[in-house]
């Protein structure tokens, strides 16, 4: 079979591949300590579920306007203003079928062959492939573990060319949990303004921050509107991954272009999910700090547990629900090596230790592993035991 060049330029999401491999083993009855999925293990809060049931009972089950119903777009703008200090109106807001769809739409309308998009690494797996799908080129800029994986304007400046159209800022980040501090975000915005580049802030994990880090949006920076695009999602903040509801906030002209694309592809996000999201945006937020408190406990346990294993170095992430340990001390061909690279190590951990996690190579960071701690403390303990055993047994072998 022959497919288009654009589909041949991309690969299946590596995180989806890990989830599929783990599921296969689970189906055979194998007990997997599953650190693979990037989704909350909490249920969707009850008032959100009830709003969806009500929408069904009231027959709100028909097409809606392509960008979403007006009360939802209005509520997203109000929520974002209240929670993150922006000032958008509904004409500057479109709802999409998840944040990934928002990103796909925005990148599709803004870049094409010959353009470059700056993608800080370690990066979320979908950014480079969505960029490649449009024909544009990802320009990768490294962030550093010893700097908490913050995106630094001085590093970004080095990869800007006349072809650069967009900078992606994912903070808190998947896969590292890294947070880029507000003062650095201001520097990034200045840089984007100077070079006439869009700054796309992916805020999927905005409300999962630890310690001194607080939810922050680049849209709260003064005079930012004409240069900033905000990507938001119900998935993580409200434990709604399966509902598929995300949104884009940006200047009205750009929103209209994404609505045009959406009108010829998915049309509106599911009507029922829109009413659930409306309840999320207007209802109580107490589930969010409750989840955050639980994630904070798990983060503490997993960071300490990993650092106690010889050959693993794990920094303390500022946000999200991932840790990104460096395992390079146990890779290669030396006497202590467990595997030749982190992809082989991830495969061995699944096969031999029944621990599912994702190789750092998938995120442009060889030598690392991504571990999602969106799982119970008991499963974290079990997973840590298995990783420790695998590391010690292999060392002795
Ligand atoms: N952005 C980042 C950084 C993510 O990690 C994810 C999901 O894992 C998304 C966007 C997309 O989430 P969704 O499409 O479920 O809204």
Could you outline the blueprint of secondary structure elements for this entry?
Blueprint: H1 5-8, H2 14-27, E1 33-34, H3 46-57, H4 70-84, E2 93-96, H5 99-110, E3 116-121, H6 126-134, E4 137-142, H7 153-159, E5 164-170, H8 182-195, E6 198-202, E7 228-233, E8 246-249, H9 252-263, H10 271-282, H11 287-307, E9 322-323, H12 342-353, E10 355-356, E11 358-359, E12 369-372, H13 377-396
Parallel strand pairs: 1-10, 3-4, 3-5, 5-6, 6-7
Antiparallel strand pairs: 2-8, 7-8, 9-12, 11-12
The structure holds pyridoxal-5'-phosphate.
Short description:
With 397 residues, the chain is of the alpha/beta class. It is 41% helix and 13% strand. Pyridoxal-5'-phosphate binds next to helix 5.
Shape: globular
Largest sheet: 7 strands, mixed
**Mean pLDDT figure:** 96
Q: Could you name the ranges where pLDDT drops below 50 across 5 or more consecutive residues? A: none
Secondary-structure element order, N to C: HHEHHEHEHEHEHEEEHHHEHEEEH
**β-strand number:** 12
């Amino acid at each position: 079979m022959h497919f288009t060049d654009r589909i041949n330029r991309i690969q299946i999401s590596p995180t989806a591949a890990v989830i599929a491999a783990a599921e296969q083993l689970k189906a055979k009855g194998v007990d997997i300590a599953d650190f693979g999925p990037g989704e909350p293990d909490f249920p969707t809060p009850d008032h959100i579920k009830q709003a969806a049931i009500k929408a069904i009972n009231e027959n709100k089950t028909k097409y809606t306007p392509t960008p979403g119903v007006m009360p939802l777009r209005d509520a997203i703008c109000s929520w974002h203003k209240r929670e993150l200090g922006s000032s958008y109106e509904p004409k500057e807001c479109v709802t999409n079928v998840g944040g990934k769809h928002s990103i796909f739409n925005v990148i599709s309308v803004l870049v094409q062959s010959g353009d470059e998009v700056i993608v800080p690494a370690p990066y979320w797996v979908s950014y480079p492939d969505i960029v490649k799908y449009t024909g544009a080129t990802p320009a990768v800029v490294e962030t550093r573990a010893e700097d908490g994986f913050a995106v630094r304007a001085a590093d970004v400046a080095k990869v800007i060319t006349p072809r650069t159209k967009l900078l992606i800022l994912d903070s808190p980040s998947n896969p590292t949990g890294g947070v880029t501090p507000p003062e650095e975000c201001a520097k990034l915005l200045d840089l984007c303004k100077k070079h006439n580049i869009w700054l796309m802030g992916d805020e999927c994990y905005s409300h999962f921050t630890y310690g001194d880090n607080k939810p922050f949006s680049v849209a709260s920076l003064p005079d930012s509107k004409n240069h900033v695009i905000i990507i938001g999602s119900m998935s993580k903040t409200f434990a709604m991954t399966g509902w598929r509801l995300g949104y884009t906030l940006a200047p009205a002209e750009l929103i209209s272009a994404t609505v045009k694309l959406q009108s010829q592809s998915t049309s509106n996000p599911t009507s029922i999910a829109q009413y659930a999201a409306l309840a999320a945006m207007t209802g109580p937020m107490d589930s969010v700090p409750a989840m955050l408190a639980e994630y904070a406990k798990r983060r503490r346990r997993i960071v300490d547990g990993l650092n106690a294993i010889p050959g693993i170095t794990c920094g303390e992430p500022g946000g999200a629900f991932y840790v990104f340990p460096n395992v390079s001390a146990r890779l290669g061909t030396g006497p202590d090596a467990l595997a030749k690279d982190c992809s082989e190590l991830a495969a061995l951990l699944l096969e031999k230790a029944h621990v599912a996690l994702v190789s750092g190579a998938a995120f442009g960071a060889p030598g690392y592993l991504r571990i999602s701690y969106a799982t119970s403390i008991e499963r974290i303990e079990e997973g840590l035991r298995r990783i420790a055993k695998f590391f010690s047994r292999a060392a002795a072998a």
